[in-house]
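[job 4471] stage=fold_predict status=RUNNING
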Amino acid sequence: MPPETPAERRRPRIALTAGEPAGIGPELIARIAAEDFGADLVVIADRGLIRERARMIGIELELADTAPTRSAGRLACIDVAMPHHSIAGQLDQRNARYVLETLDRAAEGAQSGDFDAIVTAPLHKGVINDAGVRFSGHTEFLAERAGCGVVMLLVAGSLRVALATTHLPLSAVPAAITGASLGETLRILDRDLRRRFALESPRIAVLGLNPHAGEGGHLGREEIETIIPAINNARRDGLNLLGPLPADTAFVPSQLAHCDAVLAMYHDQGLPVLKHAGFGHAVNVTLGLPYVRTSVDHGTALDLAGSGQADTGSLRAAIALAVELAVAERRL
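[job 4471] inference complete, writing structure tokens
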């Protein structure tokens, strides 16, 4: 009998990657295994690692094959062998390529239709780069693999903050913001807010790059030369855009009441506000991919690894949103 297609499955099938083996990802996955998210969860990781971390924090967990399993204390698992034993809280460069292999397996399954969505636990960019692999993050890795433009969107309740640039040094940001790149970002953001978040005409607030949005060119000309022309071009295509707005007042409630999402020009312009508002239950969503991908809003928390004290809130929120978006995708 041929395998079920995504449309034939009643419950979405969600791939979970455990991220950095020395971090909190493996134990977070062990802790949520007994919960029913209305989906079939499949962890892609070293089976021995997940078992070990479950035992370490006092959880009884049975790892089954990849067939759907919904019993409390059981979790389906695609076993990817880790080359070296991992000690909680201690990074090991020798396991860096294993982390990328789990991510690659998840992406392959999502692109083939075997998974309806991917949810990623945190990895450690530094140890991957130290192992000799150039790596700037999940978002960029998945975009390159899928061969498409993407947008990083963070969601905390009704607050949605997208980024025009992602993991770049601040000195590199102005040159990275071009009319073409900003136009593509706006179109991906608008398209996926309509498609996956069911917003008929999403209102997007676009921030300026400079203080006071450049103050008429006195504090920088990027708004005049790049951002405003890109906004005007996108408006001609029917996008509902506000801005460019000064970043220091764009997040006050009276401003947010008039928009469905905010586009920040760089990582630390928008994300500190969102994480202040929703850290621990915020979700990172990669827009533009041919499949749904969500992630947690925190890092590997090496100091908490193996303690059982790490909060599962963001992982639970990431799974719940992935299921919601995957169901919406089926209706298209």
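[job 4471] summary: The first helix runs from residue 25 to 32.
[job 4471] exit 0
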